[in-house]
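Researcher: Re-running this chain for the archive, since the previous output was lost when a drive failed. Same request as before.
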Amino acid sequence: MLIGELSKKTGLSKDTIRFYEKMGLIAASDRRAGTRLYKEYNSETVERLLMIVQGKGLGFTLNEIKQLLNEWGSDAISKRGQIKIVERKIEEIVEKTRQLDVIKTYLVAKLGKLNEEVLSESSNLTD
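Model: Regenerated structure tokens:
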């Protein structure tokens, strides 16, 4: 399939697909049509791109995703190595969650103060 069809199937822009190819996350074969050269992607590329999107959503970097896709599929990373990678990512998620809780607490307090000020201003206007 050509990049336009791949873009439609995955919801990713053509530029993003080209970037992922440049990074070595996906591969394409060249297909000549007259004087033009087209990139052609196989159906496995759709699955690979969806895995990349899912990995990014879970907080993995593109380099981590590349390593996982390339090495986990070939058993290049031992089970213990895979466990360490997943445990490290879980620790990162726990820390991000803690940071988000701190920000949420601050924002909730700020919102409460703002609501009090608005109510105070409103009561002062009616007095």
